[in-house]
Automatic annotation (TrEMBL):
SUPFAM superfamilies for this protein: Thioesterase/thiol ester dehydrase-isomerase
Keywords: Hydrolase
Ranges that cross the membrane: none
A Pfam family recorded for this sequence: 4HBT
Molecular function via GO: fatty acyl-CoA hydrolase activity
Keyword Isomerase recorded: no
Domain Thioesterase: 66-154
Keyword set includes Nucleotide-binding: no
NCBIfam families in the cross-refs: PRK11688.1
Family: Belongs to the thioesterase PaaI family.
Domain of life: Bacteria
Protein name: Uncharacterized protein, possibly involved in aromatic compounds catabolism
Amino acid sequence: MSKSPASAAPPPHAFEPEFIEGVREIFERRILFNALLGLQITSITPDQVTAQITMRPDLIGHYAHNRIHGGVISAGLDAMGGLAVMAAIGARHLDEPPLARLHRFGKLGTIDLRIDYLRPGVGERFELRAEVLRLGSRVASTRMGFHAADGKLLATGAAAYIVS
């Protein structure tokens, strides 16, 4: 069975592998603080992004008892809000080639961040989720969640990002 040229294009709400790999390169490797935290993207769609952090013995020390620091939670949620904005910008400009969309992230920056800590971050692995509530021409608003491995919500976040 032969494929038609139309079947080679990604579905309208999915990203091309080149775009996803480009976002992964920026988020996981070029943003050095994300690399230090060990943030790893697990899913990226136009509507929601997810990632995980696995505790590293070389960073937590013997005294921490697998309790993740609030600063790591805050930084992780901020990074995830930015990642969600990247996905939303990428989805808004699907008519552009992947590389052109990746260049749009250069001016992205946090302008407001609120974190609510609900429970202690105890565990060895955590899942982070984020979505864009509104993507305007200058500002994007996001909502984020920091979850234990069992799915229990440990912290929530809301942020605004400059996009132009």
